[in-house]
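Issue 218. Parser rejects a valid record. Input:
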Amino acid sequence: MSAVINAIRDHARVKPDALALQGAEWKCTYKDMALAIDRTADWLQKHCLTHRPVAVDVSNGPAWIVLDLALEQACLASVPLPPFFTPLQRQHALVDCGARWLISDTEEVEPTDGAKVKTFNIGPFSLRAHSLDFPKANIPDGTAKITYTSGSTGNPKGVCLSQEGMEAVSRSLVEVIGSDYAGTHFSVLPLPVLLENVAGLYTTLLAGGCCRIEPSKAIGFEHTFMPDFSLLAHSLREAKASSIILVPEILGGLLSTLETEDGRLDDMRLIAVGGARVAPDLLKRAKDRGLPVFQGYGLSEVASVVALNTPNDYDAETTGRVLPHVKLSIDDDGEIIIHNPALLGYTGAHTFSTPLRTGDLGTIDDNGRLRITGRKANIIISGFGRNIAPEWVESELLAEPQIGQVVVYGEAKPALGALIVPGGFDVDDAALAAAITRANDRLPDYARIKHWVKTMPFMPSNGLATGNGRPKRKQILKEYKKMTESSYDSKGQSRSFFERLVQETATEQQYLSEVPQIMDAMKGDISLETYIAYLTEAYHHVKHTVPLMECAKAHMPKEKTNMLAALDEYIEEETGHEEWILNDIANAGGDAEAVRNGQPRFATEMMVSYAYDTIARVNPVAFFGMVLVLEGTSTQLATNGAKAVQEKLGLEDNCFSYLTSHGALDLEHMKFFASLMGEIDDPQDQDDILHMAKNMFVLFGNMFGGIPHNKEIQNAA
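Output the parser choked on:
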């Protein structure tokens, strides 16, 4: 029997009315929780009895942890599916483990032919069990949980863990932290993340505390990689949370918000941070703000935590002492070796031989504390023969709020460089340069950043980050190879061609943004007539988008294969968008057929004609200057203007399909576009794209300026 379940039963006898779980819709005492686990386990044994794994896709909330422990009581291996997995990663996990059932709290899962769907309740929550028909997979005997690590490749790896191995971590944490810290643990990370599941929930329940589990959206994580840290801080204060577990990026964002708002978390007693190295400066800022932050180290194969600083045993320069149950050594190369991992093996293999070579580099100091120095595979050997762990340098850079993501490079080079993603839209180049200088001041000369390039975000959607947001180092350095190589031509910031495009069209962009129709649209201050007039002109230029691309393809030299491939992708994506516009016009009360058969205004016709002429007469590559203008502008209108206009005019969503859908697509397109521009190294091509972009911003502004404005219509009336 599980030690956690036994502890819950003991707490139910000693303090039956004490809160064990608290969520948005359900408060559950220890007595109620013990009964809920029994009922759920009985239902599972009756309806889902199988020797195959059961996948769990349930939102953050009390039902998740009841189901998790009920699966253990029913002797069913659980497979928690992280919410940040892509559909392909989800499917891979289900097939890889040979899942027999998928339990979900949504109706979005489409049952396959012949599949059974059974419903049951945990408290007020309704869950659905979907039968699956995947081939049986090889799973080690004794597997209680299969946790999928996102890793550095597209397909996550299934780590098979025993319940005893997971609970050994929880028991050690209670031992070294003390049960008196078991107040209200607030779940910030998704529950399928092993660190939250084992180190957060299991540990709190063993010690008799209360787990506060709110929906991710309610605490600021509606968008996984763009958290609302102000909402998170408010949620923590409202819950009087006494402990949380964070990764460094979330700690940095929360800390920056508290500094900006001059806020505090007065009830907080323990903030454990893991998942990546935490920069000393970030720990210092946290201490100055009064946050009790304690860095740790762990990995999935050891069921989350290996070492942790604690309130009674703290050293900011290390990840703390190794937990009592862990047997660890460091070999002659500095690699950390675990001799008793919780890992039973990986999916697809029955056996696993110990010890576990972690691939992490570290040292043990004279006081027995573990210091992590980097990843064995990532070590950079500079041109001067210095071995540098990029994680060390990156952690110092990420301690600066102005820097959101970073990848350090410099193999065989005399100095290090960095690909930098700004921490926000309002962070300019000067702020980035100052942040890099501050980080460099904390580093020795050989580890300082001498060359840097500003880039678009590394995200799962563009293949440059894992599902939980960690940059894929090898893939990024491969994709940005030209850019990193050229960055060594000069010290300091190296501008990509995309950056040059954005910066050198600033005057023309301002001309467009100051058109009255644009300014009022951003505020929603336009009439229905003006909106329909805008859609009319949009139709008359968007219907030429694909023909313009086909024209560019026809004139493009065959050796420019990357440009031809990009045009093919754009054509596939853009086909039929003009019909979206006609649908919006009809739904808004306009005459769509009259627009289809009508003529554009002069400014619109001039813009389209100029595009065809430039492609055919000057340079087909110049067409990408138009791409910058159209996609950047439609993104701005979609993200900032559409909602305001909709609220002002009281129109339904089906009147804005072009703007909202096109805007969402163009956010992805702009990332693709920035990468594509990085491949253009012909000076003439660059100049022609820039010339086209400058003129297009002006012509696009003229098109908007020619649209009858609501103020003109009101005056005429």
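Fixed in the parser; the record now loads. The chain has four domains: 26-163, 164-372, 379-494, 502-716.
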